[in-house]
Amino acid sequence: MSDQWATRLPHPALRQLVRRYIGYTQHGVTLAVHRGLPSRSVTLVISLAEPVRVVAGPGAEHGPLHRHCVVGGLHLGPVLIEQDAYQQGLHLELNPLGVRALLGVPATELASTTVDAGELPVRWGRDLPARLRELPDWAARFDLLDRELAAAVAPVTLVSEIQWAWRSMVAGHGGVGVTELAEEIGWSRRHFSERFAREVGVPPKQAARLMRFERSGDLLRAGGWRSLADVAALAGYYDQAHMTNEWRSLAGCPPSRWIAEELPFLQAGGTDPLAD
């Protein structure tokens, strides 16, 4: 049997809250521990096979977390997840600014942790994995997600200045300065940072780090680059050493090690484009 990957945008009514749905089926996985990387999204993972097993990192400080449906908030370190040879599930990327409307809790409550979705005030938190497992294909599962998530959305009031700042940071892949954003809004840097952190879950400086880091990871996955120095420049780092230091901090390893673990097909022979 072959591996399957399926992606779909959510219903238009949800697109301000959910970036995309990703469905996956994998056979013969050999990597024992997957490194869940920090990103600009709050992550919802629903396993349709064995439970998700978070063994280290945010949410596992008091012991491993084994659940079929988990939500991970914004975090500044790797989440280590034990893997089985067979895996099937769904991965949803949520906008932190939409978490309060979608999950009934603010993004700050989920920051730097991973929780069982059954503990959240949403009616689908406990039974969604079983209902998704009964469906025949990804299209039907995505349709069910559309219905359940749309029904769960609650009206909330968002701070328009923070929404604008978030969109500006996303569009610039974290390259827009905090001071510049605060001045554009007309707030002091301190006031802007405090209000931003209350809405998003991390201060704007850390959000910008996550966006640059995510950008570098996307570039590495896409391939086609000549060297890590080129990736560092495209992602907005000062140089390759800057990017490597950020990877050690946010991923727990340099990019070359992550590629060897997660993307071994990108390792090239001959020249050494992965030298840190």
Polypeptide structure, described:
The structure is a single chain. The chain has 276 residues and is an alpha+beta fold. It folds into 2 domains: 4-152, Sandwich (Jelly Rolls); 160-269, Arc Repressor Mutant, subunit A, CATH 1.10.10.60. Helices cover 39% and strands 18% of the residues. The mean pLDDT is 93. One of its GO terms (molecular function) is DNA-binding transcription factor activity. Keywords: DNA-binding, Transcription, Transcription regulation. This is AraC family transcriptional regulator.
List the helices and strands and how they pair.
Elements: E1 4-8, E2 18-26, E3 33-36, E4 42-47, E5 52-56, E6 65-67, E7 69-72, E8 79-82, E9 87-94, H1 99-103, H2 107-110, E10 114-116, H3 128-133, H4 138-152, H5 160-171, H6 178-185, H7 189-200, H8 204-222, H9 228-235, H10 240-250, H11 255-262
Antiparallel strand pairs: 1-2, 2-9, 3-8, 4-7, 4-9, 5-6, 5-8, 7-10
Helix pairs in contact: 6-7, 8-9, 8-10, 9-10
CATH fold description of the largest domain: Jelly Rolls
Number of strands: 10
Order of helices and strands: EEEEEEEEEHHEHHHHHHHHH
Q: What portion of residues is helical?
A: 25-40%
Mean pLDDT: 93
- Categorize the overall geometry: globular
Stretches where pLDDT falls below 50 for ≥5 residues? none
Share of residues in strands = 15-25%
Alpha-carbon distance between the two ends: 37 Å
Number of helices: 11
How does the major sheet shape up? 6 strands, antiparallel
Q: Can you tell me the number of structural domains?
A: 2
Q: Please write the CATH class name of the largest domain.
A: Mainly Beta
Q: Compute the CA-based radius of gyration.
A: 19 Å
